[in-house]
Amino acid sequence: MAVMAVMAVMAVMAVMAVVAERDQRYRTEKNQDNSMHQTHMISPYGGTLVDLVVPAEARDELKAHASRLPSLQLSARAVCDLELLATGAFSPLCRFMGRDEYQCVLDEMRLPSGHLFSIPVTLPVDPDPALRLDHEIALRDVHNDVLAVITVEEIYVWDQREVAQKVYGTQDPRHPLVAEMYRWGRLHLAGRLQVLRLPQHYDFQDLRLTPAQARARLAAMGAPNIVAFQTRNLLHRAHEELTKRVMDALNGILLLHPAVGLTKPGDIDHYTRVRTYKTLAAGYYPPHRILLALLPLAVRLAGPREALWHALIRRNYGANYLLVGRDYASPGVDATGTPFYDPDAAQEMVTRYSDELGVGMVPVRELAYLPEEERYEEVSEIAVATPTACISGTQVREDYLHQGRMLPGWFTRPEVAQILAETYPPLYRQGVCIWLTGLSGAGKSTTAEVLTVLLLEYGRQVTVLDGDVVRTHLSKGLGFSQADRDINVRRIGFVAAEVVRHGGIAVCAAVSPYRATRDDVRSLVDTGHFVEVFVDTPLEVCEARDTKGMYAKARRGEVTGFTGIDDPYEPPLQPDITLETITQTPAENARLILDHLVQRGFARTPAVPGAQEVATIQSTAYRN
């Protein structure tokens, strides 16, 4: 036991040493940056980089003080924001926004000082007696480690609908941030921040540069211009060609600056992306013309507003140009299939404020490959009859990755193709969530049982998450209020997303009456890996099937808040599949879902389909 205790202490000391070394390196490079004679590099926005990290000599005392304070556990998004506030990436912003800053940003895209700032950076919290003005709160991460101390100077109510409309331009819960905001606390905290340490990252530590560190390295490279390129996607040959052309045209350095905080649901994970970026930066770019650095940014997918915010952040990292593509920072399309933002809006926004912000907008041009000449050219420069080759993002997924085929060398570097092949198996080995929603008694659970047997026959691994069963195990003690129902559904969604992430099929059967909650769950799963199935059974049929007598109790007033009686059910507006259960049997409906999955590529038809299971399940009646 004594040996184990010593080893534990040594492990803790090692981690503390790593943290201390990084914080010291951060402060040293920041001092170097502030003292460096920078002839060419643009200054931070507002003149100086904000630095909220407490000096080393004061940390022990503040840490001891923080251990006695009430605590607030930060969300992953708030941790990302805190790190970028602490290191000056959001300069001149130096705290989570107070009411005046927040309202000014919503209405004018500016701070009260007049500086541009297009995205609200706030700290949402739930009401708590410990939250009092002029009192201090310790801010902790998910591991309960103290990151900072905030002196509460403001507590104010905010309006999710106002933020959704003014920042994201929509109330549609298909927008991931609009859906996410309704889980945030109803109050905002603001006040002085004292940061004890930056969040600890164990991956790619040599690439996690603060603004001061990045500026020091870029200044040492000595080029007159620095063009930043943010991407949540992979870099293929066309992107490589484009960035090299821009570097040459501007006589500049490329700051390859991927966001590795919270990104769009369904994006390629940052581990895979960064592995490919490292390969390209080391093997295909001149070493003195590129700096790869990771940005711990929690993206908002706010289209044009986000593009302007990104330009401001990149100025603080030393860039005076930003590459901006069409449909930049967009979550895609809304519930009607309409894009959330005009494709050119982001480029127009950055151009409009370019002179004031000091960051030029470089448009991302569309390139095509000329197979006869074995080179890339801008589409606008290619004659109509010239043979070209291109592979769309959809084709990359559906025709190559999902089929287990390697991408061609003219499209992507072979090292990148190999990394993708290792990370993304064929679609029939990837995960998918089938979400059956409908009234109680509609037939969800019975259909889910049949579907599970069929999927097992097809060689897939299946996890069934039934609403009633989950309540018994994961959600015991929850009631049937709207809040408790939402918690239950989100727990199902969280588990389903984990099953999908690890390559399994999650079959979920839950009433899940509210659209916004279902859309929230959808956002947890990669795009294209969520199948919403509406089990469309009329209320009177559900009541007739009700073996538990719950509808009768609800009619008599013995049960309140029962979906379909005194609480609404909001049917899906655009379900992937709609099932009719009066004339269709559970087996027939399960087959419809299976056929859909086969068509999408999530299952392959067995060489010899089994018959015994099918014969058994065809006689099954609807129970729920």
Structure description:
The protein has 624 residues and is an alpha/beta fold. It has three domains: 40-195, Sulfate adenylyltransferase, CATH 3.10.400.10; 205-423, Rossmann fold (3-Layer(aba) Sandwich), CATH 3.40.50; 427-617, Rossmann fold (3-Layer(aba) Sandwich), CATH 3.40.50. The protein is built from 22 helices and 17 strands. A five-stranded mixed β-sheet has the order 1-3-4-5-2. The chain has a five-stranded parallel β-sheet with strand order 8-7-6-9-10, with helices on both faces. The protein has a five-stranded parallel β-sheet with strand order 14-15-13-16-17, with helices on both faces. Helix 15 packs across helix 21. The N and C termini lie far apart (54 Å). Mean pLDDT is 89; it is low at 1-23, 25-39 and 609-620.
How many individual β-strands? Answer: 17
- Helical content band: 25-40%
Q: So what's the overall shape? A: globular
Which runs of at least 5 residues are low in confidence (pLDDT < 50)? Answer: 1-23, 25-39, 609-620
CATH uppermost class of the largest domain: Alpha Beta
Return the structural class: alpha/beta
Q: Domains counted in the coordinates: how many?
A: 3
Terminus-to-terminus distance: 54 Å
Radius of gyration, Cα only, in angstroms?
27 Å
**CATH superfamily caption of the largest domain:** HUPs
**Taking all residues together, what is the mean pLDDT?**
89
Biggest sheet statistics: 5 strands, mixed
CATH topology of the largest domain: Rossmann fold
